[in-house]
Amino acid sequence: MAEEKRKRILSGIQPTGTPTLGNYIGAVRNWALLQSEYDCLYMIADLHALTVRQVPAELRRRTRELAALLLAVGIDPKNHVLFVQSHVPAHCELAWVLACNTQFGELSRMTQFKDKSAKHPDNVNGGLFTYPVLMAADILIYNADLVPVGQDQTQHLEIARVIANRFNGVYGETFTLPEGYVPAAGAKIMSLSEPTKKMSKSDTNANSFVLMTDDRDAIVRKFKRAVTDSDGQVRFDRENKPGVSNLMAIYSTFTGRTMEEIEAEFAGKGYGDFKLAVAEVTADALAPVQAEYGRILADKAYVDEVLKDGAARAARLANRTVSKVYRKVGLLQLDR
Ligand code: TYM
Questions:
Q1: Cα gap 248→186, rounded to integer Å
Q2: Are 69 and 17 in contact (CB under 8 A)?
Q3: Residues designated as active site
Q4: Where do the annotations place L-tryptophan binding (predicted)?
């Protein structure tokens, strides 16, 4: 019997600072896990990073570091594809066509655009506004079936579906409508110091996030300081106990235990014990990744080779879609 064709995944992460535990639990960890079931393309979204002012040399360094980190997490560049967005120009080509099929009003409603423009009022640029169109191009250009992301990206995924659907309606069946893959417990890891806010690497308070490269001491220190509440019970209640619930989500991810099991485990114990346990399982999970990261990053030539090969393979797929789209919208193409 012919083997069933595997479904395809595309996801991306920006090279803007070291990824946090939020990036790891919400996305990157699942990227590695999903490789056994899907054909995966994972991308470093350097073009998206330009929507906020970057220090050029730093952006370049971080792009390579992030590639090494993704390899350390277990992304397998032989059986899957790891590449840098700007190395596949077809993303921008498709983004233009999609932008011409996306409404101003739709883009104006994006919460991330509103948040980021409020945060950087001196640089509300066109790229920030059309950011979701480029992201739609990233996904649709590979006809991805599944997009593993954290909760903050679900609105962007929704607009990608809207754009795909509209294009298919006008020009005929062209794009696959992508589905999101959002983890049950860790879709939104919250800040350790303000647990009603998302954990973010751009937070000015370094105690609010754990970085994927933090050592055990730093991890323990940050979890010890994590804001909880005064009722002293380890109980899952996002609304009334956001700090404790966030720590439980992290603990649940790394131990596989349910919220009920965690509540039973820490019944009658103080937050001190609980926080230490969360720190320990986090440090245990990150330690092997960090060891691999150091080893891989030391071999720049290998990382660059992976990215070169990834870009070539991604471009072959992407160029095919762009050709098809150009033909459908009526752009004259000469024989190549
Ligand atoms: P970025 O770089 O902000 O984040 C990468 C991934 O990490 C997830 N994430 C979180 N998950 C749980 N809790 C958190 N606190 C947390 N913080 C971040 C994000 O949801 C994301 O999945 N626009 C994207 C990059 C991108 C992309 C794409 C993603 C570009 N093109 C195409 C998917 C498909 C971004 O800025 O992610």
A1: 10
A2: no
A3: 116, 198, 201
A4: 138
Map tokens 């640089």 to a residue: 123
**Best residue among 11, 16, 18, 23 to mutate for probing ligand 1, ranked by most atoms within 8 Å of CB:** 23
What residue's CA is closest to ligand 1, atom 34? Answer: 11
Q: Which residues, including other chains, have CB under 8 Å from residue 44's CB and lie 6 or more apart?
A: 12, 13, 14, 15, 63, 66, 67, 70, 83, 84, 85
CA of 137 to the centre of ligand 1 (A): 15
Q: What is the pLDDT of residues 131-163, one digit of tens each?
A: 999 999 999 999 999 999 999 999 999 999 999
Residues 6 or more apart whose Cβ sits within 8 Å of residue 275: 223, 224, 226, 228, 247
307 phi, psi to nearest 5 deg: -70, -35
Q: Please name the amino acid found at residue 248.
A: M
Q: Whose alpha carbon is nearest atom 35 of ligand 1?
A: 13
Cα 274 to Cα 284: distance, rounded to the nearest angstrom: 15
Residue ranges of the annotated binding site for L-tryptophan are 138
Beta strands (DSSP E) in 175-214 are 179-181
Q: Report how far ligand 1's centroid is from the alpha carbon of 41 (Å).
A: 15
Q: What is the pLDDT of residues 1-21, one digit of tens each?
A: 556 789 999 999 999 999 999
For the segment 192-204, the average pLDDT, to the nearest whole number, is 94
Ligand 1 pocket: which residues have CB below 6 Å?
A: 10-14, 22-23, 25-27, 45, 48, 135, 138-139, 147, 149-150, 152-153, 186-189, 198-199
Residue 268 has which token pair?
A: 């009658």
Distance 19 CA to ligand 1 centre (A): 10
With CA atoms as reference, report the closest residue to 165 among 194, 129, 191, 139: 139
How far apart CA 79 and CA 257 sit, in angstroms, is 31
8 A C-beta contact, residue 141 and residue 94: yes
